Amino acid sequence: MSAHPRAAVRPAPPVLEVRGLVKAYPGVRALDGVDLQVRRNEVLGLAGENGAGKSTLLKALVGLVRPDAGEIRVRGERVRLRSVQDAADHGIGMVFQEQSLVGNLTAAENIVLGSEGPGVRHGFYRWATMRRLAQEQLDKIGSTIDPLARTDSLTFAERQMVEIAKVLRIEQRTHDTPVVILDEPTSVLEPGEIETLFEQVRRLREFASVVFVSHRLDEVLDVCDRVYVLRGGRAVGEIRPAEAEPGRLHRMMIGSTAAEDHYHGGAATPVPPTREPLLTVRGLTGTTFRDVDLDVRAGEIVAVVGVHGSGREELCRALFGAVATSAGEVLLDGRKLALTGPRAACAAGVGYVPAERKIEGMVGPMSVADNMTLAKQGVRCAGPVVVPRRQAAVVDRWISRLSIRTPGRRTAIGRLSGGNQQKVVLARWLVGGDVRLLLLDHPTRGLDVGARSEVYRLMRELAGNGVATLLLADSLEEAIGMADRVVVMSDGRVTTEVPCPAGGKPSPLDLVKEMV
Amino acid sequence: MSTPAAGTAEPSGSAAVAAGPTATERLTSLMPVLALAVLVVALAAVDPDFLRRSSLMAVVDAAAPLAVLAAGATLVVLCGGIDLSIAALASLSSVLLALWLPGLDALAWPAVVAAAAVAGALQGAAHVFLRIPSFIVTLGGMSIFSSIALVVSGAATVPVDDDTSIRWGFTRVLGSVPSAAVVAVAVVAALALLVTLTPLDSAIKATGYSEAAARLAGVPVDLVKVGAFAVSGACAGLAAVLLVARTFSGGPTLADSLLLPAVAAIVVGGTAITGGHGGVWRTLVGALVVTLLRVGLSTVGVSAAYESILYGAIIVVAVALTLDRSKVLVVK
After folding, report:
1. Cα–Cα distance for residue pair A400/A408, rounded to 1 Å
2. What is the pLDDT of residues A269-294, one digit of tens each?
3. Distance (Å, rounded) from C-alpha A213 to C-alpha A58?
4. Tens digit of pLDDT for each residue in A16-52?
5. What is the CATH number of domain B32-38+47-319?
6. Do A370 and B218 touch (CB under 8 A)?
7. ipTM surpassing 0.90, yes or no?
8. B202 to chain A, minimum CA–CA distance in Å?
9. What is the least distance, in Å, from the CA of A309 to any CA of chain B?
10. Hey, are the CB atoms on B9 and A69 less than 8 Å from each other?
């Protein structure tokens, strides 16, 4: 094009632009008209709570989700992305939260997998060429990883570097600034590794645009040039880290009205420290945790926090009898709890809400009613025989008590929104009226703000009724907000305990110091 | 093409969620019954004699051993597994029955059914406790049962001289109703009642749909699975009793050809091969459809040699129609 005087002044279109993107799932509007722009060679942060629409937005950007309305423009041109390949052809690539490398291939093979180019001729691999191509990619990001190492022999952080090297192969397709999306890249990294990743991100900015997604405020403020805050499926604000203070960003993320009493602290009933513990764990040892001592009193909410590999998830499952233990004992109300399996735990009045709701928490095609009575069949039976009327009565009562939004008790649970599904899974342990201890593994994962608030309220109510709760929270803020006491685990051991009374809550930073 | 803004967006909120099954789902669910009706009408059109009482009774009589055999295996499929050993176990049971009748007399058939149940339970235990896929365990079981049958029978048909104690398996009741059909309906009814009247219903479904979730809800998954295999074995034994009663002999390969029709009966009935969805009554309808197809082929003059093509094809087609592939991430 001939140089028009004004063309030089007008800024180039953003590399990637999203306008009014909408995506609805039954019961929830994951994206509610999102607008955002990614400029050349910038690091753009996306911050938002779980359920704010971050992952749906990312999936739309790499062609895994088709938006219902709105448009995506790449370098000013409107595109429809139908697959990850499609997105790569437009120069958009993503490093997935759950890594997408093939473990039994070498780093080099993984890097060129799917974009072999000159690495394949006449249908045959040219190993030397492939290795060279992979080495080029690794050099580009300044990595010293051996391209011939088997991927599953690398550490998590190293595999992440391999993924970044792999994603950068999309440069070959567009010969233009690629957009690299990093989805929660720090969630399972150690602090030292996080610093290395940040250096990498700053290096990437030299030749790529980076979209950096995280629900941790300190990170996005540290590494990004600009930050969009997402809430309830919309971009509610744009912030330059230089002028932002975390408090304001945080209020933006959870919404000012919700922030006032997001965790229903006012409904918390203080538990006298003199009360005898309901759950007593002594010297419990399993494959990933050792010598764990833990007490939870009736009516108390105890949060266990720790980084990836702290062993807290396994501990939680072990208390339910779902994974084996090798030593130690567990007392429930002074009586020994046999850790022989979930059945024994259920019978003793222990309830467990797993983190993977869709896989482990609920039976998707089964009805709300059958899901709710799955663990406590007694409530719908007279002797050994099922009485449908009893089930209907019990289930309808809990549907209204927990305000579960469902067309009816016969609706398949898979059709409800995440929050309502989770309420049914929680109700499963309540219908029997005999629950003493609740083990909640990330009970609010993937829920929108409103649904989370309702789960918090329910937890408060149960605690008020004397149920002991062990919580593995989704975030430190949640742990601090909900818990009466926070137990810190590191490397499979309980390292310290921090009291968390209303009015005397510790700051997340205090806890982070204890965690590493 | 441009996308109209917001116009294509789905309405959010619970209004978009249907209360029960949708119309399409109801129709899919009724498909086996419709198929049965269409087959009856078609056969009657080709051969008006088909609607005579005696021909209809011949069909239900022929379908009975198949229905009994497939009814038990349906429970295994509902739990998310498969039992490929049923036909071989039925053959073995027929040999054992013929061998035990002279000595045990009236106790022979209960003994055979019990032995077959134990054989099934053993397979279930191997599947559950050694964590071997049911497909492999029962493929091995199939081979083992076949071989045992050949060994104990001396690779020959074992004739039955005195069939008094099992004559109930091949007679007529209420005039012209084949007793085998009554047995089949009774077995299906008993299993269906057992399942629907007790919490087994949701235990089996939860196991089949999502074993991990069922386990974490305290469902005795292992027990349910072993039980399903035991019932499957017992049904194979009972099917053998019906077969021996009508052939007056046991044979080491007597029931072997029933494996494919039995699997066909289960999937044609609308029980999902992936587990969870389906029911025992559906298998009764499936057994009738499969039998009618076979009868129909001979009515229109197709050689019996083509039968296996039919079974192979209907299994594939039935699974293709019933499997919700959007929910299955990886097909192995």
Report:
1. 11
2. 777 777 889 999 999 999 999 999 99
3. 9
4. 999 999 988 766 678 888 999 999 999 999 887 766 7
5. 1.10.3470
6. no
7. no
8. 7
9. 22
10. yes
